[in-house]
Amino acid sequence: MKLHQAFDIARGDVVAFIGAGGKSSTLFNLGHELAEMGWRVVATTTTSFGLDQLELMPYAVTPREGMGTLAMALDEFRFVFVYDEIRAEKVYGPPLNFIPRMLDSVASDVLLIEADSAGGRPLKAPFDHEPVIPPETSLVVPIASLSVLGQELDDEHVYNAQAIIDRYGFGEGQRVKSPWVAQVLRDEMLGLARVPDNARVVALLNQVSEGYLRGRARLIARLILRENRVGSVAIGSARAADPVIEVQRPVAAVVLAAGMSRRMGQPKVLLPWTRKMTIIEQIITQLILARVDQITVVTGNRAGEVRRLATTRGVEAVHNPHYETGEMLSSLKAGLAAMPPHISAALVVLGDQPRIQPKVINQVLMAYAEGRGSIVAPRFEKQRGHPILIDRRYWPEIMALPDDGAPRDVINKYRKEMAFVDVDTDSILGDVDTIEDYIEQRRRAGLL
Fold first, then answer.
1. Residue 434: what pLDDT?
2. What are the C-alpha distances in Å from 437 to residues 189, 272, 279, 380?
3. What is d(CA 112, CA 43) in angstroms, rounded to the nearest whole number?
4. How far apart are CA 96 and CA 132, in angstroms?
5. Is the pLDDT assigned to residue 264 strictly greater than 80?
6. 367-418 residue pLDDT tens
7. Gap between the Cα atoms of 224 and 231, Å rounded
8. Which pLDDT score, from 0 to 100, does residue 403 have?
9. Which residues, 6 or more positions from 93, have their beta carbon under 8 angstroms from its beta carbon?
10. CB atoms within 10 A of CB 37
11. Which fold has domain 251-444?
12. What is the mean pLDDT of the segment spanning 209-227?
């Protein structure tokens, strides 16, 4: 996956890179990606960096050369760096008040800013005056390199290590652990210091390859996302041709458990599945085992009993007031309307599919994280099943569907954006509509 995809870059963005362990390489790689797409890319710094890095830029100008020179350079090179002066082998950026004037005067598509310095270390805590993020910034990318794991917590390996020691009580010289990286990056006094209130935040865990380190990075990303201020966490290596191997985002499960169960003749979600659990409890348990970020159960028929079973397991419940006359769509609308703004996608889970498996859920989530599709569905022997993941960008169209519509109307409209995950179990197809279905599903689960 390319950086512009992982960061969801849009024309007009002002992007500030902060933190440590790959700011310059991320800025350079992203700039080249966008320039190759035909974008007009301006880059600068609000701090300074080494003169050798300036030589990596296609072209560089100073404000003294005038806005016309910058515009002509963009016409020719597409990717231009703006700096103020060079002193003692260091390149210094223009004053902050130059940035809004440049944005108003030059027709560029995106502005990339290195807004922090870390002295080449892989992790940092800022001093009081850092980072220097312009108020015009629309996207902030906090960065840390996972090469810091196992290194000593001291100023040789961590920029301003004392600030981390003072805030969390870690011992100086202790080996840096995965949760520490997450704590620093998600902390509004450290990794998120001085981030403008209206800016999006996408963190980057850099210098991550396949294997064990990718697993550690995924754990760190999940911990970072406990802070709702961070929209997503990209994982990869900024210098690679395809720099991002996955993007972790908060995903919520919407469990549709409001139906009247007319064919069953009794509320199917309340039927016993095992000796200790009902069908709805079994489904919630599997979602918890899959570590889904948030679980919301949509209630309707026998709402009080379903809500009690859900909340007992620590998940949320929302009521569908139209459950008697509405179809699946009304329940999905109720679930989506209850989603907090930081949730990126919804995993639509049927409330009568008790053989749902954490393995399948994780396969769907991983396909989404790897950018294979913005709608993801499992498939068994060429048959599409549930749960289906739907990115937030499609929710407005689902919410606007008429009462006689169905979620598949939107899903089928965007088939080109859809990814299928082939699985080795028919559990994605089996639901419980009749007593015969119930007996058969329990038999397939080995419960009879």
1. 87
2. 55, 14, 13, 19
3. 5
4. 9
5. no
6. 999 999 999 999 999 999 999 999 999 999 999 999 889 999 999 999 999 9
7. 10
8. 87
9. 44, 45, 46, 47, 48, 82, 83, 84, 114
10. 13
11. Spore Coat Polysaccharide Biosynthesis Protein SpsA; Chain A (3.90.550)
12. 93
Q: Please check whether residue 24 is in contact with residue 53, taking contact to mean a CB–CB distance below 8 angstroms.
A: yes
- Domain residue spans of the chain: 3-248, 251-444
- Report the distance separating Cα 297 and Cα 291, nearest Å: 16
The β-bridge partners of 42 are 80, 111
Contact 220, 178 (CB under 8 A): yes
Six-digit token string for 319: 């009521």
Considering the entire predicted model, what is its pTM? 0.92
Overall CATH class of domain 3-248: alpha beta
